[in-house]
Design a protein that fits this description.
The chain is mainly alpha-helical.
Protein backbone atom coordinates (compact mmCIF):
# COMPACT_ATOMS: atom_id res chain seq x y z
CA UNK A 1 0.00 0.00 0.00
CA UNK A 2 2.91 2.35 0.70
CA UNK A 3 4.17 1.93 -2.85
CA UNK A 4 0.66 2.49 -4.21
CA UNK A 5 0.13 5.73 -2.28
CA UNK A 6 3.63 6.94 -3.12
CA UNK A 7 2.91 6.48 -6.82
CA UNK A 8 -0.25 8.54 -6.36
CA UNK A 9 1.65 11.33 -4.56
CA UNK A 10 -0.11 10.76 -1.21
CA UNK A 11 3.00 10.89 0.98
CA UNK A 12 1.08 10.96 4.26
CA UNK A 13 -0.62 7.64 3.53
CA UNK A 14 2.58 6.30 2.00
CA UNK A 15 4.44 6.82 5.26
CA UNK A 16 1.50 5.55 7.32
CA UNK A 17 1.43 2.22 5.48
CA UNK A 18 5.20 1.77 5.49
CA UNK A 19 5.22 2.43 9.24
CA UNK A 20 2.34 -0.02 9.79
CA UNK A 21 4.16 -2.68 7.81
CA UNK A 22 7.35 -2.05 9.79
CA UNK A 23 5.42 -2.35 13.06
CA UNK A 24 3.93 -5.72 12.10
CA UNK A 25 7.36 -7.12 11.11
CA UNK A 26 9.84 -5.80 13.71
CA UNK A 27 12.73 -7.91 12.38
CA UNK A 28 12.18 -6.91 8.75
CA UNK A 29 13.78 -3.69 7.54
CA UNK A 30 12.39 -3.57 4.00
CA UNK A 31 9.33 -1.40 4.73
CA UNK A 32 11.64 1.12 6.37
CA UNK A 33 14.01 0.85 3.40
CA UNK A 34 11.10 1.75 1.11
CA UNK A 35 10.17 4.71 3.32
CA UNK A 36 13.78 5.94 3.43
CA UNK A 37 14.01 5.62 -0.35
CA UNK A 38 10.81 7.65 -0.75
CA UNK A 39 12.13 10.35 1.60
CA UNK A 40 15.43 10.51 -0.29
CA UNK A 41 13.62 10.87 -3.61
CA UNK A 42 11.71 13.83 -2.13
CA UNK A 43 14.96 15.44 -0.93
CA UNK A 44 14.30 14.78 2.77
CA UNK A 45 17.82 13.49 3.33
CA UNK A 46 18.06 13.84 7.10
CA UNK A 47 14.79 11.98 7.60
CA UNK A 48 15.87 9.35 5.07
CA UNK A 49 19.12 8.85 6.96
CA UNK A 50 17.33 8.34 10.28
CA UNK A 51 14.93 5.83 8.72
CA UNK A 52 17.65 3.91 6.85
CA UNK A 53 19.57 3.60 10.13
CA UNK A 54 16.42 2.28 11.79
CA UNK A 55 16.14 -0.28 8.97
CA UNK A 56 19.80 -1.29 9.35
CA UNK A 57 19.24 -1.93 13.08
CA UNK A 58 16.65 -4.52 12.05
CA UNK A 59 18.68 -6.22 9.31
CA UNK A 60 21.75 -5.42 7.27
CA UNK A 61 20.61 -5.87 3.69
CA UNK A 62 22.78 -4.94 0.73
CA UNK A 63 20.22 -2.57 -0.80
CA UNK A 64 19.77 -0.77 2.53
CA UNK A 65 23.52 -0.46 2.98
CA UNK A 66 23.78 0.93 -0.56
CA UNK A 67 21.05 3.48 0.13
CA UNK A 68 22.88 4.45 3.33
CA UNK A 69 26.05 4.85 1.22
CA UNK A 70 24.18 7.17 -1.15
CA UNK A 71 23.06 9.28 1.80
CA UNK A 72 26.62 9.36 3.18
CA UNK A 73 27.85 10.45 -0.25
CA UNK A 74 25.28 13.25 -0.29
CA UNK A 75 26.81 14.44 3.00
CA UNK A 76 30.30 14.17 1.44
CA UNK A 77 31.22 11.52 4.02
CA UNK A 78 33.37 9.45 1.67
CA UNK A 79 34.89 7.23 4.36
CA UNK A 80 31.43 6.24 5.60
CA UNK A 81 30.22 5.75 2.02
CA UNK A 82 33.13 3.44 1.24
CA UNK A 83 32.64 1.44 4.45
CA UNK A 84 28.93 0.97 3.72
CA UNK A 85 29.59 0.00 0.08
CA UNK A 86 32.18 -2.58 1.12
CA UNK A 87 29.69 -4.13 3.53
CA UNK A 88 26.92 -4.04 0.93
CA UNK A 89 29.11 -5.83 -1.59
CA UNK A 90 30.03 -8.50 0.99
CA UNK A 91 26.35 -9.05 1.83
CA UNK A 92 25.45 -9.33 -1.87
CA UNK A 93 28.46 -11.45 -2.84
CA UNK A 94 26.65 -14.25 -4.70
CA UNK A 95 25.11 -12.66 -7.82
CA UNK A 96 23.13 -15.78 -8.78
CA UNK A 97 21.52 -16.00 -5.33
CA UNK A 98 20.16 -12.43 -5.35
CA UNK A 99 16.66 -11.34 -6.23
CA UNK A 100 16.07 -8.78 -8.98
CA UNK A 101 15.60 -6.01 -6.41
CA UNK A 102 18.95 -6.83 -4.83
CA UNK A 103 20.68 -7.11 -8.21
CA UNK A 104 19.53 -3.61 -9.10
CA UNK A 105 21.04 -2.29 -5.90
CA UNK A 106 24.19 -4.34 -6.46
CA UNK A 107 24.59 -2.54 -9.80
CA UNK A 108 24.28 0.76 -7.94
CA UNK A 109 26.86 -0.31 -5.34
CA UNK A 110 29.22 -1.47 -8.10
CA UNK A 111 28.85 1.81 -9.96
CA UNK A 112 29.43 3.85 -6.79
CA UNK A 113 32.55 1.86 -5.94
CA UNK A 114 33.90 1.86 -9.50
CA UNK A 115 33.66 -1.92 -9.98
CA UNK A 116 32.61 -2.23 -13.63
CA UNK A 117 33.01 -6.03 -13.66
CA UNK A 118 30.59 -6.49 -10.76
CA UNK A 119 28.10 -4.19 -12.45
CA UNK A 120 28.38 -6.21 -15.67
CA UNK A 121 27.86 -9.46 -13.75
CA UNK A 122 24.69 -8.05 -12.21
CA UNK A 123 23.52 -6.85 -15.65
CA UNK A 124 24.16 -10.29 -17.17
CA UNK A 125 22.20 -12.00 -14.40
CA UNK A 126 19.29 -9.58 -14.74
CA UNK A 127 19.22 -10.03 -18.52
CA UNK A 128 19.35 -13.81 -18.16
CA UNK A 129 16.40 -13.77 -15.79
CA UNK A 130 14.43 -11.36 -17.92
CA UNK A 131 14.98 -13.60 -20.93
CA UNK A 132 14.24 -16.80 -19.00
CA UNK A 133 11.14 -15.60 -17.14
CA UNK A 134 10.23 -12.12 -18.34
CA UNK A 135 10.92 -10.64 -14.88
CA UNK A 136 11.28 -6.88 -14.54
CA UNK A 137 12.74 -5.26 -11.41
CA UNK A 138 10.54 -2.85 -9.47
CA UNK A 139 12.31 0.48 -9.01
CA UNK A 140 9.95 2.18 -6.56
CA UNK A 141 10.15 -0.38 -3.76
CA UNK A 142 9.70 -4.02 -2.99
CA UNK A 143 6.31 -5.67 -3.13
CA UNK A 144 5.42 -8.56 -0.81
CA UNK A 145 5.98 -12.03 -2.19
CA UNK A 146 3.26 -14.66 -2.06
CA UNK A 147 5.63 -17.04 -0.31
CA UNK A 148 8.02 -15.34 2.07
CA UNK A 149 10.63 -18.05 1.70
CA UNK A 150 13.51 -15.59 1.32
CA UNK A 151 14.06 -13.38 4.38
CA UNK A 152 13.84 -9.64 3.97
CA UNK A 153 12.11 -9.56 0.61
CA UNK A 154 8.67 -8.39 1.62
CA UNK A 155 7.19 -5.10 2.73
CA UNK A 156 3.97 -3.20 2.79
Amino acid sequence: MGIYYGERGDHVRQEKFYRQSAATNPGDGVALFNLALAKRKRGQLESAKEIVNESLHRERLGPTLTLAAQLAEAEKSHTERDRLLAEARRVMASVSALGEWELGWLKTAAQMSGDAELGKAADRELQKRKTDRGVIAVETGVLPEANKGAPGLSSG
